[in-house]
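S.,

As promised, the zinc ion run. Input:
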Amino acid sequence: MDIQDDIERRETCGDYGGETNQGNPCKRNAGSGTDHVGEGRCHDHEENMLDRHDIELSKVEALAAAGLPISSDQAPDIKGYFGISEGTWSNITQKHPELREAYERGQSNASANIGQSLYQRAKNGDITAQKFYLKCQAGWKPTEGREISGPGGGAIEMQGFVSLPDPDEATD
Ligand SMILES: [Zn+2]
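Predicted complex:
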């Protein structure tokens, strides 16, 4: 079959492989109801966008765990990692809520893992880990020491107080 014939023939969703529930080729116009009218399947039979853009949910999860934002103007983000534009990305996330679910799963798993290892260190006697764990877990706050000083870190001038001799000098 000639390739040109193959392209010209693709006018309906069914030509791109879209099938009705009965398993017949869909007769709607190609891309009907989508942002790619005239090409591809109709809105109801659209291909999996995750597959089309090679987005693996397990990878999204791993990137989320590594701390990459899902979408950011300032920093490297997950859509950039997959080389996807802003508009397409918003389509994908709308059509595939499992994408955000994978992202959130990655984030909470990471927190859980770090929490677990912090807990292990605390149990093994790491004082810093213990303090941090208690702070997070129980709202525990260490007693804070405060030092008060005068201008430039010097002594505070006291006015109206009787000046006592320094005890060290008094022994002379
Ligand atoms: Zn269709």
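The radius of gyration is 32 Å. Residues 1-46 form one domain.

- D.
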